[in-house]
Specification:
It contains 27 helices and nine strands. By secondary structure, the chain is mostly helical. Strands 1, 2, 3, 4, 5, 6, 7, 8 and 9 form a nine-stranded parallel beta sheet that branches. Helix 16 links the parallel strand 4 and strand 5. GO terms for molecular function: flavin adenine dinucleotide binding; RNA binding; tRNA-dihydrouridine47 synthase activity; zinc ion binding.
Length: about 700
């Protein structure tokens, strides 16, 4: 941020353009409106002095797509005609979201500079004669665009910027004559890279389909065979299943003996161990046969001069002896502050902000298993983890047992995480029609195969995210939970699933209705002793502790509440309502911007990515109503406010619903946008009833 931009934000926080309303100077119409709003259900109660009675709805088209601009022109033309105008609506405004945002950022990397020149100078490029990129630093310096700011966050914090001459804040660390990147070590600050970077060798193997999935494929075959056999036996003799259930209840109540039959999980482990031992025995026999076929000269040569070998590290038996459920590392999920996995907006910089406010458990964005197995780099970016994330999980979404199991094997062998979350709650039609997300709960046999196979191949806890059901009138989460609860080893008390998280809405409801916490409580009682976290409408510390104390849940997962007010975690820990100022919220945006530049880069492409994700977050942040403006606390998440203005201009700007005002906020942090810049929010779900 430049000095001029800092002065602008400071002046906005000190200036109030709107005069506070005086009840004695308001007319009867305005007072009657205010009384109606106070009693109208679903309306947030704003103090009289901050309500904007003179607000005019203005449609700014500067950041709209060309199609929507044409619709506006047609509507204005028809309004001037004598004929009654046709009603036209903006339908599918976000349908071409990716195309529009990609079009506005098509010139991210127009510098055409060689990667080696950017990092270390011309002499470091090993392909100078064949390299297709530019190596002339003097030419680039002559046309290099002006910096967005004189201060580079990476250089000021760590003493080195990895983007060198193409950094958009490079004035402080670039030699203006030679273009060399300056390095000034900071003794008190050590740069810690984020974890789970995409290994180049893994990319090579995945894209050429040469990754070894022998273990997961063998496990899937065993799972399909054993579960099919068990289902056939249960179908042919249903009374046996009822008798077994009765015996289990008798065993739990009176602790009588131990059952002789083993669960399917134990059968998997035994079968895997048997197959592994057989493969090892065959390998040893083949090796002995080759040695026996050798001549005497070779044997003497081997005896006199043994073949040297190299050790590559500690040799373990993890590939031969899998961990059983009771041997896995357990996580205490009781009453932890859990940030929900959030598509697009739940990125690494946002999770860092939430960790600073007191969040304890974080989870990456939903990753599609098919995209991971294809080696798509954008999908692997969702697995990145910051070192400050002490308990971090990866969320997987898929519809087939083979792809899910293969993905888990690949992640176990190459990435660092603490638990695996299976997404059975995604309501997006594109995912649902592929049989993933919510749809997988309708295929209970496939769902069982997926969970059992993943549990066997993974050394980490398994969690499942659910919704109440597909249709509002047909809740089936309690049936899924009861089924998953029965998947356990009968020789110990450990289950296949370690945690359930239940969103109190169906796929059909989306977000406009209140979450059904009565049904969440019912499911928590069914899940006992497996912990269950409830999700939905947690927007204050009163909401959080009310759900904990009045239901049987083990904790609450926070989603939209954290997007609108990330300091909610601090409010819950300290059990107070925080009337956070506009300056403090703007400082939070400044920290997010710095974390974004550190994560996505400080070159032009990184700046525009940071700007885009910041705008996506602001599309939720603007819904926050400052505590000092409310007449009644706590404010509910689905309460719609009347038009209001803040206590200063910065607070008013941050509460604006106009996309153009969101862009102004980013310009205070990342400089001016290009004239052709366009932005449409990806998430535009209706949050009000």
């Amino acid at each position: 941020m430049s000095l001029d931009e800092e002065d602008t934000s400071h002046s906005l926080s000190q200036k109030a353009s709107h005069a506070v309303n005086d009840a004695s100077q308001l007319n009867e119409e305005q007072l009657s409106k205010y009384e109606v709003w106070k009693t109208q259900p679903g309306m947030a109660q704003i103090k009289l002095q901050y309500i904007d009675f003179d607000h005019e709805v203005r449609l700014k088209v500067e950041h709209l797509s060309e199609t929507d601009k044409k619709l506006v022109d047609e509507a204005n033309t028809e309004a001037n005609d004598t004929v009654e105008p046709k009603k036209k609506k903006f339908k599918g405004q976000n349908r071409k979201h990716l195309e529009i945002n990609a079009r506005s950022s098509s010139n991210y990397n127009d510098h055409r500079l060689c990667f080696f020149v950017i990092r270390g100078g011309l002499e470091n490029c090993p392909y100078q004669s064949k390299c297709k990129h530019e190596h002339d630093l003097a030419s680039y310096l002559s046309r290099r665009p002006a910096d967005l700011s004189s201060n580079c966050y990476m250089f000021d914090t760590y003493g080195k910027c990895a983007f060198g001459i193409i950094c958009r804040f490079g004035q402080s660390h670039i030699d203006p004559l030679t273009g060399k990147n300056l390095v000034v070590p900071r003794p008190n600050q050590t740069y810690v890279e984020s974890l789970n970077k995409y290994p180049p060798m893994l990319k090579h193997l995945l894209r050429r389909k040469k990754y070894n999935y022998t273990l997961s494929d063998r496990l899937v075959r065993i799972a399909n065979k054993q579960i099919t056999k068990a289902n056939v036996a249960k179908r042919n003799n249903p009374s046996a299943g009822e008798a077994e259930t009765t015996n289990e209840q008798h065993h739990d109540e009176h602790d009588v003996g131990e059952k002789e039959d083993r669960s399917l999980v134990d059968i998997y482990y035994s079968a895997l161990q048997t197959n592994t031992n057989q493969n090892q025995a065959e390998t040893n026999e083949n090796q002995q046969q080759k040695e026996a076929d050798g001549n005497d000269d070779e044997q003497e040569q081997q005896t006199s001069r043994p073949v040297p070998y190299r050790t590559l590290g500690t040799i373990t038996d993890a590939d031969m002896i899998r961990l059983k459920p009771r041997e896995k590392v357990r996580i205490d999920f009781n009453r932890r502050l859990y940030l929900a996995p959030l598509t697009t907006v739940g990125n690494l910089p946002f999770r860092r902000i939430c960790k600073e406010y007191g969040c304890e458990i974080t989870c990456g964005e939903m990753a599609m298993t098919t995209s991971l197995l294809q080696g798509q780099q954008s999908e692997f970016a969702l697995l990145r983890r910051h070192p400050s994330e002490t308990i971090f999980g990866v969320q997987l979404c898929g519809s087939f047992v083979d792809t899910m199991t293969r993905t888990v094997q690949m992640l176990e062998e190459n990435f660092d995480f603490d638990f695996i979350d299976i997404n059975c709650a995604c309501p997006i039609d594109l995912v649902y029609k592929k049989g993933a997300g919510c749809a997988i709960t309708r295929r209970t046999i496939d769902f069982e195969r997926i969970c059992r196979s993943i549990s066997c191949i993974s050394t980490h806890p398994i969690t499942i995210k659910l919704r109440t059901g597909i249709l509002t009138s047909e809740n089936n989460a309690h049936e899924i939970i009861s089924l998953a609860k029965s998947w356990k080893s009968e020789h110990d008390e450990n289950h296949v699933v370690d945690l359930f998280t239940l969103h109190g809405r169906s796929k059909e409801m989306r977000y406009s209705k209140n979450a059904d916490w009565n049904y969440v409580n019912q499911c928590a009682q069914v899940a006992n002793p497996i912990p269950l976290y409830g999700v939905g409408d947690i927007y204050s510390f009163e909401d959080y502790y009310q759900r904990l104390n009045e239901t049987s849940v083990s904790g609450c997962m926070i989603a939209r509440g954290a997007l609108i007010k990330p300091w909610l975690f601090t409010e819950i820990q300290e059990q107070r309502t925080w009337d956070i100022s506009a300056s403090e919220r703007f400082d939070m945006l400044k920290r997010y911007t710095n974390y974004g530049l550190e994560h996505w880069g400080s070159d032009q492409a990184g700046v525009e990515k940071t700007r885009r994700f910041l705008l996506e977050w602001i599309s939720f942040l603007y819904r926050y109503i400052p505590v000092g403006l409310l007449e009644r606390l706590p404010h509910r998440l689905n309460e719609r406010p009347p038009y209001f203005f803040g206590r200063n201009d910065l607070e008013t700007l941050m509460a604006s619903k106009l996309c153009s005002d969101w862009v102004k906020l980013t310009e205070l942090l990342l400089g001016k946008v290009a004239p052709e810049f366009q932005f449409l929010p990806k998430h535009k779900a209706n949050a009000y009833g």
